[in-house]
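Hi U.,

Before I forget, here's the chain from the pilot set. I'm dumping it here mostly so it's searchable later in email.
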Amino acid sequence: MIVLVDLLLMVFDVTYCILRGIVTTFLRPRLKPIDGELCLITGAGGALGRLFALEFAKEGAELVLWDCNTEANEQTAKLVRELGVKAHPYTVDLTSRENIYKMADLLRHEVGDITMLVNNAGVVAGRRLLDCPDALLERTMVVNCHALFWMTKAFLPQMKAQNHGHIVTIASTLGLFSTACVEDYCASKFGAVGFHESLTHELLTEEGLDGVKTTLVCPYIVDTGMFAGCKIREELQSFIPPLEPLDCVQQAMNAILADQPMVCIPRVMYLPFLSRALLPWDANVLTYRFMGADKCMYPFIQTMEQRQANGLTKMS
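Structure:
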């Protein structure tokens, strides 16, 4: 009898969640203020990281900027300070667990406890699997996936102690469905999605911990040059073009400030995610081929090979 009651309550709650989701799709949700929050962004020297820093700065958050490129990170800090917001740049190697923990301790001593963590840093090898050195494959996995474990272990305890915080994972639609020639990237982003979802479930099961939020961001290919040359079928390219970086970041910010658990950018990316789960494998392959998604990374791989060849030529 208790099971039947719980089943009815679950159906009611699920229906409510679906209706609420439909309503919030068309109505602008209420956004939370983050002025005074201490926000850490990884990969802050890159295109998306810099835009995230500026958007968080506009909302009044104090910024902690982590990147392995000191010069680029300092430039981001300069732009943030021009907006009248404090910025604390740190040169950090996300491939080193020891360096992450060391810098986290230093940060707590020099600045304070992080209340918003944006795991944005990401890399890709850009080589076919059999042509790719093991070191590059490992680097992708460590930066895109393993570092999430270490970052979370470094900063989540303080959030839980205060029952206040927000962890954001910038993953990818290639963490929801895959394509050819980017095995390292897909594996790392599938791992990032799995890690984030499991962490979210864990936080939801802990009573009295409703103040620590999570947001998973899965964007389509963003026009930052990371996947230069990547394209789908020419006739469909105009319908699903690469995302403009600023537009991508602003949509992600809306989801973060609305405490939205997950967002795919653009929304049409929910469709291949659903088709992957619902359709037979062969049907998905046929769909990929029609869209040109099965070979969309081939031009990107060729571009990376040309860059490598040019680099070797210059070195020789």
